Structures are given as structure tokens and as C-alpha cells.
Amino acid sequence: MTEEESGTPHWLFGDQLGPHFVDPARGGPHRDAPLVMIESRGVFRRRRFHRAKAHLILSAMRHRAAELGDRVRYVKADTYRQGLREAVGEGRVTVHHPTSHAADAFVRSLPSVRVLPARGFLVTHDEFRTWADGRGTKHLRQEDFYRWVRGTHDLLMEGDGPAGGRWNLDHDNRQPPPRGSTDLGVPAPYHPRESEIDDEVRSDLDRWARDGDVRFVGEDAPRRFPATRREALAGLRRFVEHRLATFGAYEDAMLAGDTTMSHSLLSSSLNLGLLDPAECVERAEARWRSGDVPLNSAEGFVRQIAGWREFVWHVYWYFGTRYRESNALRHHEPLPAWFTELSSDATDANCLSHVLDQVRTTGWTHHIPRLMVLGSLSLQRGWDPRAVTDWFHRSFVDGYDWVMVPNVVGMSQYADGGRMTTKPYTSGGAYIDRMSDFCGPCRYKPSVRVGEDACPFTAGYWNLLHRHRDRFEHNARMTRAVRGLDRLTDLDELLEQERHRED
């Protein structure tokens, strides 16, 4: 690197906040390069974000700027373009590959910006493209990718094979919650302490809202998620030492009184760039090899990070900008206001009310409420998948474009017609009843399809199968379920009921 290049400023986006984004040994800028950070209020004007999400992002950015001190030029502006002009004028700047198509197109449109390779993931774009192109099929499967990553990165391996003889221990990780328990009885997740920077952020957000400049949804309670590298490491340490052991068995279970179960709550830290995925999976593997956690828990966590998270990131870029427009099921219904406003008291369905309340108060739920309550409902009601994707993006503290487009369009809403999953992820009330304690006190009965006691998920499930019978009956994983329609003596009544459902 020339002396001129060593002095080129480097631009850090608000989700590139960890040390690996400024490490010259890992493809980062020169150690003497000045840094630029831009806080764009326009980002919060364009979308109505969850208040807790806006707080977390701004808190993390301002904490990082305080850590970097005089090395960083922190600019508050209406737009990135304006902020960049204020920070460096017409001068050159480098930036790591951004995490959204829009941001990537923007930085590449600026002649003064040089884009460096992406950071924060185990697999490079070129490596994934080589793997995917070599599949010889239009369908990409996470399980195949996961096994490839395990082997190439030597994760939970014994020689050339998987530790324990099986690649995937998901079958061992589907236990319902302990009967009669209101919580798992595990140590609580790490909770950070707020600082003066958080007070400043909250004051700014209050002012923006009062001025009508920006609108939010949800509540801004005391910050629940890490905003600094130190806090993120504390969260990782608490998880692997005190919560990972019980994670595997109950990772798909739900309890009304235990919203976090044994989940790590590290997704926002990873997506802000405060943690590197390699350090997360390596610590989990180390705990298994030391005999402190069972293999199914370590493997389940590694699969979430090195399997699913990596896969989603690369699918987002590999399938391109048009992927978000996918709507194979031709669902176009708008999201109802009670859902977009996170109004938990607008529904009598106990599971949905609890999950919406958690999203409203925290901006987070774990993956099963997202997929099998919120996502399943959206799919069954035929809501527009692009609107559902936008809702998830705005409403969750860990929601980013690259996260939600594949997760919602591909997995949750099956809008891509099966390009990344083999079947729609939806169910009747029986699944929710088996995997949670929501159904006991609910006014609806999971076994009832028609009438005042009919579970909206049970009725909605059969309604969805009927609506798309021609498509689903040719899916090997859906054939048996579709044939079940022929055994329903009350199908006509069910379909009429669902045509008039309002909640």
C-alpha cells in the first residue's frame, strides 16, 4: 500500500462496528487511515422502524465513535451523500461491501469510493458462487451448504466426518417444553447497562418524534441488546457458559412466561458487526469438546450461525435484486392495521397476542414465534410477501434487508416457489399446542376447525392447502397433507368461515 493509499479515509456503515472491519490483516484499511461514520436521519424517515431498533443502531454507532476517538469523523446528516460530502468532500474513500442491494448500488455509483470485500461472514461471495454454480440445479438447499461449510472450515468434525456421526441433530432438538413448567429455569441472558450515550439517543428520538420528523412503532424500554464490542462479548460468554447446554433440546419450544428460553440473543450483535461468526461457533465447539455442553446443543447453534445465517446472506446476493419481487402463490392481501401496529389486544388467539406483545415491547422473538406464529399467519391469510418482508425488517432489532428477504420471501412465505426450501413452513394449531403452553388458556381450541372455538391457525392451515391444492399436491413433502382435505366433512363450512374472518 502506498503512502497515499494509507491516508485514504475508510467509511464504516452502522452494521460494520467490530474490530474485524478495521483490521488491515483481515482486509481492512491501513492502520493509520482515518475513519468516517455517517448517521443519516433519512434512513429513519424512509421506514417506520421499531423504536428499540432505532435506539440500538444509533447507540451502537455512537458508542463505536466514542471508542475510536479522534481517528473517526462522525457526521450527522440527512442523507449519506450529504454526510460523505461533509466528511471527505470530493476525496477518495474506501468502504467494505455494504449489506443491502440499495447501499451497494449507491456506493458503487460514487466514483470516489472503492469497495473492499465483505467482512463478517465465513464464506466469501466468490466461494459461494463457485459452490452454488456447481450444484447444477436451480434449487439451493441449506443442508447441503451447511455440510460443505462444516467440512471446509473444520467445524465439529472428526476426521473427514461429522462429530458424532451425523451432520444434523435437528431430530434431537425438537422437544416440547417441560410439562407444567412456566420457564426453563436457566440463567437469564446478558443484559447491558445503559450509558449517557443511550440517554442522548433517547432524547434525540423523542425530539424527532415530537417534531413529526420520524415515526416509530413499538416501545423503547431500557436497551436489552449489546451496543458495544465489550457488551457483545459478555453476551456471548454468558450464553456459551450458562445457556448453551440447554439450547439444543428446546430450541423449537415456546413458553408464554419464558420468552428467551435458552436462545443466545446474539443475532443483533452479529448483524451490527460487533461479533464475528467465527468466534461464536469456535467458542461453542470448544464448550462441547471440553465436555461442558452436549453435542446436539453445540451443533444446533453452529447450524444457526455457520449454516442458516451464512446461507441467507449468500442467497440474498446470489439470487439478485429481483428475488424480493417473488410471489409464486400470488398473495396480495394487505397487512391489517392491528398487525402493523403490534396491537396484541386486537386478537383473541393467545399465541399471537403474546408474540405481538413481545415484539411491541422488545423488538425481538426467537425463530419459532417468527416462523410458526407470525410467518405462518401471514402465509395462511395470503398477505403480500413484500409487505410482510418489510414489516419484519422494520419491527425486529436484528432485521436487515439481507436477513429478511430470504427468510421471509423464501422460507416463511414460500413466495419463491421452493428455490431455497422444500415446503411451506406452516401448521395448524396442533403444532403450536405441542410445542408451547399457549393453547391451554386460549379461547380457541387447536383441534377445532369450524365454529366459535375454531383455532385460526387450524382453520387457516386447511384453507391455505385448499387454496393452493393444485401446486401443493405435486410437492412430495405436502402430498399427504393435501390428501387430508378429502377427509374433511366440514370443508365447505370452513372455507366460508375463513372468507369472513377479520381477526
UniProtKB/TrEMBL annotation:
Domain of life: Bacteria
Residues of the signal peptide: none
Region (Disordered): 161-197
Annotated protein name in UniProt: Deoxyribodipyrimidine photolyase-related protein
Lineage: Bacteria, Bacillati, Actinomycetota, Actinomycetes, Kitasatosporales
